[in-house]
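Entry 14. Ran structure prediction on the chain below.
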Amino acid sequence: MVGATPETDLKIIKLSENLYKKFRLKRVYYSAYVSVNEDSLLPALQTKPPLLRENRIYQADWLLRFYGFTADELLNEQNPNFNPLLDPKCDWAIRHLENFPVEVNVADYATLLRVPGIGVISAKRILQARKTCKLQFEHLKKLGVVLKRSRYFITCMRQIL
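Output, C-alpha cells:
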C-alpha cells in the first residue's frame, strides 16, 4: 500500500528487491492508498491517492526485475523518493552522465538496457541487427527504440542526433 504510511520509496523498493531475492517472487503488486474512513494513524479522507508515486514504483520495480538495476542504484538516503517529473530510468541516467553517450554499435546488452528509450526487446534487436550492418538512427527507430528519449544518451557510429 503506497501512501498509507510514511515509508519512503527507497524502503518500499528495497523491500521488494529482498522479496525477489530471498523468496524468488515473480511479481510484487503496489496500490495507491485511498482513504475510506477517518483514523488518526492514516492520511485524511480528502487526501488524493498517490497514483503518480504508485506508477514510479512500478517503473522502478520493472527496472529491478528486467533491467539489472538495484534499489541502491535508483535511490539513496539523500534521495529516498522518486522524482515525480522523470521516470526512474531517465532520472538514473541524468544522475550518471559519466556513462553516456553509449555507442549502440559496440555496447553490450546490459549497457543498452541502461539507456532511456531502449527496452529489453529493442536491446535484443539491436544486438541481432548489428551483426549484419552498422546501425544508424533510422535503423534504431525501426527496431523499436524510442529516439525521443534515447537520442540524448546514444551515438551511432559516433554521430550524435
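The longest helix spans residues 51-66. Will compare against last week's run tomorrow.
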